[in-house]
Amino acid sequence: MKWACLLWAASAFFSAAVEAAVSLAGTRLVFDGRFREASIEVSNPAATSALVQAWLSTPDVESSVPSDLPFVVTPHLAQLPAQGRQTLRLLYEGVGMPGDRESLLHLYVLEVPRRSEAAQQLSIAIRQRINVFYRPDSLPGDPADAAKNLEWQRSAKGDRGLRVLNPTPFYVALQDLEFEGHEVSEYLLIEPLSERSLTWGSIPSRRSAQGRLAFKALTDYGGQRDFCVLAQGDQPFNARLRTPGAESPAALTAPPTAVPGASTIEKC
Question: In this prediction, what percent of the chain has a pLDDT beyond 90?
Fold first, then answer.
């Protein structure tokens, strides 16, 4: 009983700390290269003020260390009043980023814990991170079409392998990727102009002649679009949008397209 009371008290404390955290207006941010800045709103739903710190970093460096990037986050440090809001502005210097593809950055927002005079008070610093995609101006193609332009191919060796090629200059974020009814990846971020090999261990060694691929692709605003495809053989193929009305009527009524030389693609 004593341990139960202690666990309940600890869970109540941590729950209160999490509820008091500031929140971001989105789960991702696309920085349009046609403009010199992008913005996202931070809100404080708590009944007390909150001090927040924000910085940008690249995925390959330690998260607590701001990277030397041609960007400025302003304000870097801000005091949010109770129930208040603050707009964070990301400013680009205009040079220093690749121009032939999107670049991935991480935006960190840290809620600095308030100092308490109480003895043995535990302070928790809550840090949030979202992906920022810098998209240069005049990139060829439409980012909304990037997911359906991915080129997929089953391993010709008959093992549990799947290859995916991204020929576009855009990042493609996928969720709930399944192949032949088995989960391949819960979340997969595919870099621009790259190729990935995926393997997994839950599929029986004897595979079926047909392979059904299904996934959800994230949009610029964090929405989801369902894609699937049913392909024959080991030739490259493309998935197609499954949600009715999300494409033009002409695109939906047109025969399914495949990579040149690919196997016959059927509706899924």
Answer: 60
Nearest residue to 173 via CA among 190, 186, 185, 152? 190
Q: What is the pTM of this model?
A: 0.81
Residue ranges and CATH numbers for the domains of the chain are 2-135 (2.60.40.10), 143-266 (2.60.40.10)
For residue 22, count other CB atoms closer than 10 A to its CB. 22
Cβ–Cβ < 8 Å for 243, 226? yes
* Residue 206 tokens, joined: 């004897």
At 162-216, the pLDDT tens digits run: 899 999 999 999 999 998 888 999 999 999 999 999 987 655 555 555 678 999 9
Q: How far lies 258's CA from each of 20, 35, 56, 197, in Å?
A: 50, 36, 39, 20
Indicate the length of the chain as a whole number. 268
- Express each pLDDT in 43-91 by its tens digit: 999 999 999 999 999 998 776 666 789 999 999 999 999 999 999 999 9
Question: Are the CB atoms for 213 and 154 separated by under 8 Å?
Answer: no
